[in-house]
Amino acid sequence: MQYFPPALEQLVEQFAKLPGVGVKSAQRLAFYLLAQPEEEAAQFAQAILAAKKSIHCCPLCQNLTEGDGPCPICASARRDGSTICVVADPKDVAALERSREYNGLYHVLHGVISPMNHVGPDDLHIKSLVERVSGGTVSEVIMATNPDTEGETTAMYLSRLLRPFSVKITRLAYGIPVGSHLEYADDATLMRALEGRQEI
Amino acid sequence: MQYFPPALEQLVEQFAKLPGVGVKSAQRLAFYLLAQPEEEAAQFAQAILAAKKSIHCCPLCQNLTEGDGPCPICASARRDGSTICVVADPKDVAALERSREYNGLYHVLHGVISPMNHVGPDDLHIKSLVERVSGGTVSEVIMATNPDTEGETTAMYLSRLLRPFSVKITRLAYGIPVGSHLEYADDATLMRALEGRQEI
């Protein structure tokens, strides 16, 4: 049964397709957009179309970028081209960039190996990574996949794959997060923090 | 600092404007849309534009409807035109219609009187309600605003405004919700439930 006009029902349906948005939330969002001025709604629609149309993967690092050329990070002359940091997701690039600690290049896999979700190595951007590493200009590959089972598996798989190229392969340090309490750290994290202890 | 391509940042911004959507959720939604096929994203954009373009207020009851004429409820010959149920919001019409109990017409105020939010009687669709009631065909007006302070105030204001027209003015019954437990009912609800007790 439809209690709203069809055009509104359709908008609610579209919102309800988004992850984590139920029917009630979708209704709230649709009503909010309806209450906005015409330009605002047009801008929203335009932003969707523009993003979908102009955003592609960088041909080098596979990170999201606009236009056809390499992304700003790959194109920058100020980045250290001898280091590649391998991440699962464009959001991880953003997180690492926020830390302002890393000055090398990235490689975005767009996922992790996950047999449960039918994602195998061929579904990820692994071939292009191997090509980049085999070029000979890379001296270090940092595995920065998430510290969960799938991220670990992917990092292990890649490190085995890249071993023949005689590059240094590293992994982000495990340990207790800065600003946290030992009391609340889980056993696995504490174990890794002890294992990885460093002289001060 | 922007770590995503501008078109993506703009889409994230648009999502983040929605009520209850923070930056992190907006990013998740934007990435989800980017991962969808082109048609899906185009459909979403189209739904926004179509809803915004085709949905207007019914000239009679002010409920949302498509096209210029009266809404399906006002246009229906099977509805009882002598009863008007006054609600704050189009969503309330949908809720009452779901109950399948009511067969009269509606009047949507599009808000409630709320001095805190600078909403006065002139900001609501009250004039058109008075016009409908003054027509003489209406015999009962049911106040179905929410049972909170603002809803009550609005109902009281309207009932005083409509008194001169010698129509029956009623209010939805207060009491314990069906399927709930007395144990968890709040004092005000229990008091009203006792006051409104009926013979069985």
Question: Mind explaining what this structure looks like?
Answer:
The structure is a homodimer of 200-residue chains. Chain A is of the alpha/beta class and 200 residues long. In chain A, 43% of the residues lie in helices and 14% in strands. Chain A has a 4-stranded parallel beta sheet. In chain A, strand 3 (80-87), helix 5 and strand 4 (104-108) form a beta-alpha-beta unit. In chain A, helix 1 (6-17) packs across helix 2 (23-35). The termini of chain A are far apart. The model of chain A has no long low-confidence stretch (mean pLDDT 90). At the A-B interface, helix 1, helix 2, helix 3, strand 2 and helix 5 of A face helix 1, helix 2, helix 3, strand 2 and helix 5 of B.
Question: What is the gist of this entry?
Answer:
The structure is a homodimer of 200-residue chains. Chain A is built from eight helices and six strands.
Quaternary form:
homodimer
The strand order across the widest sheet of chain A is 4-3-5-6
Weakly predicted, low-confidence segments of chain A = none
- Sheet with the most strands of chain A? 4 strands, parallel
Shape of chain A: globular
What percentage of amino acids of chain A are in beta strands? 5-15%
Chart the SSEs and their pairings.
The structure is a homodimer.
Chain A: H1 6-17, H2 23-35, H3 38-54, E1 55-57, E2 64-66, H4 72-75, E3 80-87, H5 90-98, E4 104-108, H6 127-134, E5 140-143, H7 149-162, E6 168-171, H8 187-195
Parallel strand pairs in A: 3-4, 3-5, 5-6
Antiparallel strand pairs in A: 1-2
